[in-house]
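Protein 1 of 2
SEQ + STRUCT:
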Amino acid sequence: MKSANRRGIAAWCLYDWADSSFNTVIGTFVFSVYFARGIYGDETQGAAVWGYAMAVAGFCIALSAPVLGAVADRAGPRKPWIVAFMLATVTASALLWFARPEPSYVEWALVLAVIGTVAHALGGVFYNAMLPDVAQPRMTGRISGWAWGLGYVGGLGSLAVCLLLLVLPNPPLFGLDAETAQPIRATTLVVAAWFLIFALPMLLLTPDRPSERLGTGGAVRAGLSQLGQSLKALPRNVPLLRFLIASALYRDGLATLFAVGGLYAAGTFGMSFEQILIFAIGLNVTAAAGAAGFAAVNDRVGSKPTVLVGLAGLILVGLPLLFVTHWTVFIALALVLGLFVGPTQSASRVLLTKLAVRAEMTETFGLYAMTGKAISFLGPLGFATFTDVFDSQRAGMSIVLVLWGIGLLLLLLVREPSAQAASQVGEKS
């Protein structure tokens, strides 16, 4: 199929704006903190329990993502899958509104958080796999970077709405009851509406692959057969195999940062919800600037160097973050850290498209999700274990730097194909 026009590209990028609200508000900065502080009632132990729940979600994603990706590659269109998982994410987010600040709602909150996380990640597999069809090869780096930057701006926008309309007003607006944490719980409704509304342009304006006319049963059989062949052939594609292993480690470090970063800031520095949201808004600004600023660099110098620079920056800034004791210094360094988060994620997505066969793109992104989630227990488990043993969330966060460092060293062994070679690989079927 032909690449999308400008309107279709812009609509595809806007989906990043739409779905970023889930990770930003529910996964990292607001609901996870509310769960530990308000529902569970113990910030340190609540953070550990939240981490274990995210590990369960990762296991579910690891099992299902490559299978669904392989089937989708044979069925053709990706939008039906995206719609299904988007609706599941929206529903789970909206139902979190009912999670009252009482221990009896721990299971309710965790089950819905796991469902939402799994659906959100699986929808991302199909969305990411559209990139080579949306953009021409010479523009994939820039478009991926623009989309990721727009995603951070979308996260910023959803946080701002939550802060200005729900968290700051005293007394609360809309008749919400502060005693039962309704202003905080209502942030999940903002996420549901935000995702649903801003995903529509991509669903309506961005072109999709035509149907392969295999039918559901035929697509499942063909997809599973292709997945088996791909797994057997994976050891022969050394660059892709090495990248999947390296990226699994450093992406687990990033995922751990997103999963417990808000909990760490709140527990270590005693931040209020207002301070956490203001901090989160600033972090999204720098992350968006980093993703957009490195977008052209990605196309000029290559995806691998861009990821390496991003990881090096994360490590160099992250190390002193473990030792600072004043919250203003912590915030300043964290904002600098944000500059390297976006480029690392965006360039990784582009590098995978260069290493993958175009006809198996969704399946490869499924493997990408699988390898990332297959070890996703390492970061949360390391955080929880180190926090328990040393009675310090600072010690727990050190696992993030370890994962980034090992991932960087392994990535040095990956050979990035030239633009011409990547184009030839992408056309194989």
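Protein 2 of 2
SEQ + STRUCT:
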Amino acid sequence: MAEQEQGAPYRSGRRTLVRVAVPVAVVAAVAAGVGLVPALASDSGPDLPSVTAEQLVAKALGSDTEALSGTVQVKADLGVPSQLLGAAGGLAGQGGAGPSASGGAQPEAKLAELLGGQHTLQVAVDGPDRQRIGLVDNLAGYELVHDGANVWAWDSSSNEAVHLTAPQGAGKHSDRSVPPVTPQDAAKQFLAFASGTTTVAVDGTMKVAGRDAYRLTLTPKGQGSTIARVRIAVDAEHGVPLSVQATAVSGGPVLDVHYSKVSFDRPAASTFSFTPPKGAKVTEHRADGQLAGHDAPNGKPFGKQAGGAPDVQVTGEGWTTVVSTRLPVGEVPGRDGGHGSKGAAQNPLSLVKAFGKPVGGGTLIGTKVVNVLVTDDGRVFAGAVTLPVLQHAAGVK
């Protein structure tokens, strides 16, 4: 087995984190950007030519492979209470769609569900404008289909669909496109997110979905991060990341995303066509987040809180990046498993205090990876960082 290790700081522009409309959903958004993960390498990997860390990073980021399909296994163990994930999903669905939309079919709401337990996804990709992701859990199905200017999301359990249409002149891509749930999207986010605060090394070879791959290990420098390391398996032939694994400082893997099956043949064009089933309730949206044919409430586009709450802000860099916003005013919708009756509204501050503990400057919601500090004046600071980092960002002790 050819194996070479070379510590090397890797510098890259930091990708802006996905905007979220409500602070509890920051838990989902930050965790999704912090780490999605693979199966561990076997004792004896394939014999491959030696490469440096810089060469392997360039291979992963520079891969020109645009077409593939396969099965992705996702396992998450972030330590986030199921009630909080349910609330985050409900908030994300409402924030991204507006009050009259079908929250259960919203991609933002479904993404929150992937942050707990095990899930199986069927994935097909044909370039930047065609993706299809299918999720099957507990005999219920969910489809997310992106074909050019159209994005469809359909939830079989409720037979509700959301149709997003980009207006003319909006460009190829929308901020509300298919979420980054594949190993290659997660790996690229990690490599960009790492900036110059990481030691990068080639750490042997492995097999993923029957394919030869190099293993790239990212180790945070300094202190303050709750992530100990991230391992990315890079396909030896195509340079496509096949798996991503993150381990917490507290010990053990926290997220595992990897292909169990993968093909680099181009999917048929019909794969990306979608027609909602008969009787489905369809909600139409434009790419700016507004309901088709409707003006947004208070003159604000959907995706921002009614009442003009500020957008999420990003401070720090690399592994100690912190996102901040403010708690929403009033009540937010409940979900199954939350406090109170099914669908009952919840006060954001009450929800925070129910899952958090008092600390200097406010209340802390802590998990294996993501920590969220809510200050006494209603500000929210979150990241895969320790409490002192959050307190420093908030200017409290």
